[in-house]
Specification:
About 35% of the residues lie in helices and about 25% in strands. It has eleven helices and 14 strands. Strands 2, 3, 4, 5, 7 and 8 form a six-stranded mixed sheet that branches.
Amino acid sequence: MSQVGDPIRRLTPVVRLAPAKLNLSLAVVGRRSDGLHDLHSVMVPLALADRLSLAAAGGSDDTLHVDGFETGPPAANLVLRALAATREAVGAGWGGSGGPPPALAARLDKRIPVAAGLAGGSSDAAAALDGALEAWAVSLTVHERLRIAARLGSDVPFFLADGAALVEGRGESVTPLRGVTGDPPGVLLVTPRVALPTPRVFAAFDAAGGIAGGSTRTSSAHLADELRSGLSAAALVDRAGVLAVANDLIGAAVAVEPELLGLRRRLARLLRRPVGQSGSGPTLWVLYPSLVDAETAAEAVRSAHTAGELPAPGDGEPLVTATTILTRPQPDRSDR
């Protein structure tokens, strides 16, 4: 750990966007001795994001205020856990004070649905880790940051990759990919008002025998190979039919919430496109060539639900969001 920058600026307010993630593929490749599962998953970040701001706290303890979606008791929130873990890693002697870094006041604008297969909480934790280091004007090595992220949760390391990545193991092994190139593809997200905690879905997967098909692993590996060198939005959309079924947790999610199957089928009939599932669900996704196309589809879904043609599980109208996959900035070769 080394201190960087002007110590006077060490408590400058910091703002971070915490993007949702989308599993384009998710293969369960084995059960670990610790009871967790080994995965092979291609994940991409989305423009849909929470907003986290950090500033100096008035007291001796970190605080958290949340607007938007309810996240449960603050003490259990990954933002506060990330701040505490990062402070522990930085250690004593901050700014020559002989003590740990000071408390931070966090404000979270929660725009990503909770327990929806979009890893909003994990993304918030990664944003808190990165934002706290800037607020305190200190740095940690990549290895130290990954170690903290892996302790916080299986999806947290992915968000340190800052783009598309192949995620393996229980989530601690992250290989950045070039990802989608050119104009970003549009994504329609439909999240019914039911929470599917990841442990419940994996428990259902294990109860069904915990046997995954090799075809999902093959599809996931093929997609990872393609995204290493870059794949256009059009090419990715062309592969939607294969990717929509390349998730070994689809059956387990339906076992936990049977009405998901009917919603998925009705969406496919309405939109005439393949419908996939992100992570452990319940969020369903549909790929489009552009954000405009996804927004048009979102209006069609809302209208169908209002007309009673698209019933969804849970209480109330499903959350329908049009967004895009975030793409990595490409090198400027205009002078070559």
